[in-house]
Amino acid sequence: MSVHDELRDELDKHEFMMGVERGRLAVTLDLLTDALVLVGQHGVYCQSARQPGKPKMDVQIIAKNIEQAKDLVSSVMIGLKKPVT
Fold first, then answer.
1. H or E stretch covering 75
2. Could you tell me which of 11, 30, 79, 83 has the fewest CB atoms within 10 Å of its CB?
């Protein structure tokens, strides 16, 4: 099953409200946020031996990459919202 089929209801809702491109990016942000939550939960149980109280380095890197991806997607959404002059 493709992502378009699996997420059809969410895509339809967001594409209707924001347009196709921004709607798809909004759903992408939702997916990244869900992944970030799961990584954060995993980080609670996967503690670093060298840095007590912090997740293992791979979990930190994954969380950082997801945050950066969210920032990039957000910047594209803002760019698409600006009127072309």
1. helix 57-81
2. 83
